[in-house]
Amino acid sequence: VTIERDDARLAPLSAMFRDEVPPPLPEPTRKRMLAAAKLQRRRPAAPVRSPIAWLAAAAVLLAALGGTTYALLDRAADAPSIVSLTTGDDIAVSASAGSTFELGGPDDAHVAILEQGVMLFDVLPGRARPDVAVKTPTVVVRVTGTVFSVAVEDGRTRVDVFEGSVRVERTDGQVDLEAGGVYSEAAIPEVELPEAIAELGRRAAARRHRAERRAERDARDEPPTSETAPVTEAPATIAPLPNETVPNETVPNEAVLNEAEPRIADTAEAPAVALEPPPESQPDPADPLAEGDRHRAEGRVPDAIAAYEAVVRTSDAPATVVQAGYLAAWLRWSRLDDAAGAIAILDRSRADGPSSPLAERALVLRVRAQEQRGRTAEAAQAAAEYLARFPHGGERAAMEAIAR
Amino acid sequence: VVRTFEARDQSREERDVRESLDPDDVLARLLPSVHRWLYRLLPRAVVEDAVQDALIELSRALTTFRGDASLETWARRIVTRVAYRHYRQRRPSDEVYDDEAVAGASDPEDHALHNEALGRFRRLLDCLPVAQRVAFVLCDVEGLGHAEAASIEGVGLETLRTRLSRARSAISRAAADDPILRPFVTGGRS
Q1: How high is the pLDDT of residue B37?
Q2: 3-state class of B5 per DSSP?
Q3: Does the predicted TM-score (pTM) go above 0.80?
């Protein structure tokens, strides 16, 4: 009897919930999800052996020894030995046993020159220098944010793209490869891609997909409606970090932020004594940016800005301050059209300072913000600074135009 | 001998079913349903991740689909399993107070109340133990029979009914205590 009564009582609520149509998935998201599912459908790979100790030690040395040629000895034909390296440029490199390659130094145009063997590259979007490339005896593979492998055997090259896209340049032209694409110098790929490398690539692509989905959710955050802070699209040339933050009373438009999100929910009582209350949102002491990230993920841009800027004010860790400052500035500029506020928080956090790992992007943000304010002289000055500090930077052409 | 032939016939049928399914086509057709199911089963913040995981699991499992249940029932089982996993892995930051419902307050009164009620109802569901939520969504929202819901969850009929009863009772009490939801459960609105 109780079941029927509750059933009947809840019928209107159930019907209302049933009639709620979820927001449609954006077409690019839908395509990417299906592509990822297709990619993961392939057969599971042989287990990847853990790199042994001397290979791990080589990995540590590798970042500091750019320009050195490496030859990984093939220990056993049936052992898919793989060494994984992090170059320090947000590029993770894995190479199979038997590979001979040269990693470029910080001033080289190529991240790697592969003479023989198989290498997998996992390049974070927007993190690597834009001019990095992988060179083989026959082609040059231009790198953006992507996961791909390059295999060379007897002078022939094969390229597999697991995520993103690459451009393969030959002497007689170029080929653009999308995720799932394979470049080969024969009609049938005759250079074999070891399954262990392929599995690593698929895993890296899956990680990337998850990160992109989080970023997409963030990008769909609706900025607060305000006459003084109109919504603008973020310029495509500056990508947000996976995390983000914002300013306090010293930054302009605070009033806009305070009045941006009226909440009628505050006037209502909390429901459900019988139900467990949702966990209180406590800042994660291990990740000072977590609170800002959470607000941003939930679409509360002003709260995210406030949280990030609180980190800038209170944190003693320079790297954290820089990251929080950049995120706060980026949110102010891209979501609130608040160029002045963005510059103020860049100044405060020194996100584009000499020691900042985000200096390149923060400088570009400063240039754009100054342009938006109509401060052409300041924009040109910042652009000139960019060119001096990042002569091979990805925004070089745009900065040169502004610096003139 | 008869059993052997029957087994061979069954195997051939299963193979025919599998071969008649183009995985890409099946996934594309299932995607809207998977999205809708998970939207109801999970907090909004984790829905997209769960949809991707469900697609991957469905994609891998298609090779084992034998056709002895409908494609939808088979997919629901996998999606429900994914939902359980995501529910257990969720973080406090995944708890979402429905901001869209709040934003709707500037609309005309009915619309705003409807949105607000939806947001609150979703939050109630987010607070339920996952097993109760799944039972409630499958039976009272999706309209499945108890036997089919129990089959999808992989539990006995009595277990399913117990979970459903507890879910209804908890939601009913909580809704009666909520000033926005109360009219919906006391006949004031429908």
Answers
A1: 92
A2: helix
A3: no
**Residues of chain A with confidence (pLDDT) below 50:** 1-4, 43-70, 73-80, 127-128, 222-283
For A388, what's the count of Cα atoms within 13 Å in the CB-facing half-sphere?
8
Q: What are phi and psi of A10, to 5 degrees?
A: -85, -5
Long-range contacts of A287-295 (CB under 8 A, 24+ apart): A288/A315, A288/A317, A288/A320, A288/A324, A289/A243, A289/A244, A289/A245, A289/A320, A289/A323, A289/A324, A289/A327, A290/B93, A292/A243, A292/A244, A292/A245, A292/A246, A292/A324, A292/A327, A292/A328, A293/A243, A293/A244, A293/B93, A294/B93
The ranges of chain B with pLDDT < 70 are 1-21, 89-111, 187-190
A285 — contact with chain B (CB < 8 Å)? no
Token pair of A71 as six digits: 């030859």
Cβ pairs bridging A and B (under 8 Å)? 176
In chain A, count H helices and then E strands. Answer: 12, 12
Strand, helix or coil for residue A161: strand
Report CB contact under 8 Å: A213, B49.
yes
SS3 B134: helix
Whether residue A349 contacts residue A328, with contact meaning beta carbons closer than 8 Å, is answered with yes
Please write the tens of the pLDDT for every residue from A248-259. Answer: 333 333 333 333
Q: What tens digit of pLDDT does each residue of B109-153 get?
A: 666 777 888 888 888 888 888 889 999 999 999 889 999 899 888
pLDDT, mean over chain B: 77
The CA distance from A94 to A87, in Å, is: 11
Tell me if chain B has a CB within 8 Å of the CB of A52. no
pLDDT value of residue A121: 80
Q: Are strands A140-142 and A173-178 parallel, antiparallel or unpaired?
A: unpaired
Q: Do A277 and B180 touch (CB under 8 A)?
A: no
CA-based end-to-end distance of chain B: 62
Helix/strand/coil for A86: strand
